[in-house]
């Protein structure tokens, strides 16, 4: 483990050097990906014609602030807190707009406002995070015991849709329950986790991306391939959400069933891990085209390290070694440490059937850097 910690420390030194200028260059932005020059875009820029959900309400808009809070805790430099709070202030507008918000208020406000509250005790941040938790709890469908994922989507009826990603959003509810003393937040999180366990997990340890329930009765209707290759396949980032998400539910509840599920999905990921540590978009995709998702890789690695926190010492190497293999593959073959690109992690893919593949995404950097902090001996700040 010491050699892994040493490697993580060396890699984090490169992270600090790069983020020092990247953060200053983008201090007024909320980035998602980069343009043709390698510069981050700005999802909060009102002069750009983002649509309602792709602009200030874009689901990844908490990761830049979350990354700044990680750096603030690491370095103690106040400027990182100031940049993070710039994101927080902008995201307050989403509460007024309302219509663009969905279940990913967990991603948006846990990494910004809740992190601020945890680190600094800010009352304003606490209020915003609790507000977001109430919005998330309001999406709970008691008939099916699940949290609805998305809002209206053209002619598509998504009232009964839930997705594996929401396992990560539950951490906002666990935090709100502990912070407020109100057990309802935790109860909703547990019921959604139990529904996910029952309907998303397959016998081999892989998970579905999207499951549709009847919104009136809660009955299972069908599943969808979502961002993976096809129905019945295995979208890798979704596997990462399951590993990390169920580990989080175990951390907050102590229910061993959740840790067992996290381990089952982790074992599936490890069994399908290539020797070079590179992660495809879908574990069951064809060999050609060989689309990759470095973001899914970082989520899986981060989740594996979270599982390693809770298992006996004799089991830790299984998860830690697999995580290190992935992280080293990213750091050595899929990272840009130069000033030619604002992002570190390259070759991310949002969905297998998208037209665009292999580009940076800010949340890949977040999970990559968070995993490095864990490997170096740090605690889990956010989730």
What's the layout of helices and strands?
Blueprint: H1 2-25, H2 63-75, H3 78-97, H4 105-120, H5 123-137, E1 140-141, E2 146-147, E3 161-163, H6 166-180, H7 183-200, E4 210-213, E5 220-224, H8 236-253, H9 256-271, H10 294-310, H11 316-333, H12 362-375
Antiparallel strand pairs: 1-2, 3-4, 4-5
Helix pairs in contact: 1-12, 2-3, 2-4, 2-12, 3-4, 4-5, 4-6, 5-6, 6-7, 6-8, 8-9, 8-10, 9-10, 10-11, 10-12, 11-12
Describe the structure.
- This protein has 383 residues and is mainly alpha-helical.
- It is built from 12 helices and 5 strands.
- It has helices at 2-25, 63-75, 78-97, 105-120, 123-137, 166-180, 183-200, 236-253, 256-271, 294-310, 316-333, 362-375, and strands spanning 140-141, 146-147, 161-163, 210-213, 220-224.
- The strands form 2 sheets. The protein has a 3-stranded antiparallel β-sheet, with no helix packed on it.
- Strand 1 (140-141) and strand 2 (146-147) form a beta hairpin.
- Helix 1 runs antiparallel to helix 12.
- The two termini are 23 Å apart.
- The model has no long low-confidence stretch (mean pLDDT 97).
